[in-house]
Fold this protein.
Amino acid sequence: MILNNFSAEPSSFRDNLGNIFYFENKVIRTINKIGKKNFEFILDKKILEDSISNNFLINTKIVRKDDLPNFFSKFEYVVESDFIPYISYPYEWSFEQLKYAAICHLDFQIFLFDKGAVLRDASAYNIQFIGSKPVFIDLLSIKEYEDGEHWFGYKQFCDNFLNPLLLGSIKGIQHNGWFRGNFEGIQTVELNKLLNLWDKLSLRIFSHVHLQAKSITQSIESSNKISKKFHSINKLSKNSYISIIKQLRDWISNLSFKKETTVWKNYSKENTYDDAEYKQKKKIVSEFIRKRNPNTIIDLGCNDGDYSNLCLDHGVKNVVGFDFDHNSISRAFLRAMNNKRSFLPLVLDASNPSPSQGWFQKERKGFLERFNADALIALAFEHHLVIAKNIPIEQFIDWLLNISKNGLIEFVPKSDETIQKMLRFREDVFLNYSETEFENCLKAKSNIINKNLITKSGRIIYEYKAS
Amino acid sequence: MINMINMRRLFFITLLICMTNTSAYAYIDPGLGSILIQATIGAIAAVSLTIKIYWQKIKDFFIKRKKKDFDSK
């Protein structure tokens, strides 16, 4: 059956130049009459070609409309972009990921500026990670530079990138919760209220945060009056435009998260396993990958990404890792980026995963809509939900089965040192928590293929397969 | 680079913004203020970058000279 009615990707409704559709596992971008001139500028100046060959823009090619259903014939141009294995959002990124996404955006702006083009907006959602590599995905954001124009994406850049990064580097506060709550980022006026006089002694913070916040506040209060006052200098020189971008590039590349120690800092080195147990665990994961040969893996509780990297070593094409700890995800990302691995680590509180939100609650998709894989590994993860968050075992297993029908789950018994520590200052309400109970719940929903005792304390790795 | 008249205007506007304290009505046009302040921010950025480039040149000059002295010894 040939489909002839398509719905645009819910997140692309704001763009009046074109939309995104999915057809036969392809990502199709349409360019309408309004976007035609802009797109032809990008083509004529070879900007599309050069942006792709310089790894700034996702690989995109023009498609013949005759090769597509009739529905697409009404558009001026139709292009196909490479499929992004996993879509992630800035509120799931660590500080380092947001920083490299910001650098990717600014480097692309500098590259385009040389070609007489700029980006019309600065949404962090326009950057996606393919493995550990950030790439710009929205070609219709590229436009011709007009002499004297302002950087219209400046406010959005500050809200989406600069302010969340400053929150981390000056105050040591992670941006994720705030960004998720107000998914257009952190507003300059709000950040300005948090910064003290000492913070503002920096000329860059004074100008980009304090002055901008004051200007925003004042312009809202009396926009007509202010517009007239500024009328005589309402053009921005080319030099000022590019200087702002270069200054931000220089500044952001030197930002780092305010140092602090977390419980997980040396977890993969100083955990409760001895060397032999660690080796056995790696052997079980390796055998599982060799046997099942999955293309995609989700690693829940990935920490620094030791097992994710092991999966990649055994030929898995894409691995997404999740961890509650922001610092672990930062380290895992830097490690993956330096080694050019197809590994995307993301911040996740599994007891409260990313919801479907935004306009119509469809603009940004929830966790389960985006993340499923051929197989999953959940090692030293179960007790952080079942014990620490009181999630019933059967619900925990249901949730895992929604992510993948195959996988490895490590069960941690109550006698284990980690659970003993967790229960030290709280009432033990887990009277039915046992290996038998866990096994019965897993059996009720799937087949247990293998069971391996891995520690002296009684930790067990179960291999399951559900239909 | 920015001429003196524009520089004076920018200084005046910056002063005006710093001295005015108003409350926000965030539903009108929060983007306008970010656009209006760009000339000031752009000027600060341009001057900072120029100073940085010259400072780097000065540093490079002395480092090279020091290295030359060291090599000749």
User: Anything to note?
Assistant: Residues 17 and 33 of chain B are 10 Å apart (CA to CA). Residues 19-28 of chain B have pLDDT under 50 and may be disordered.
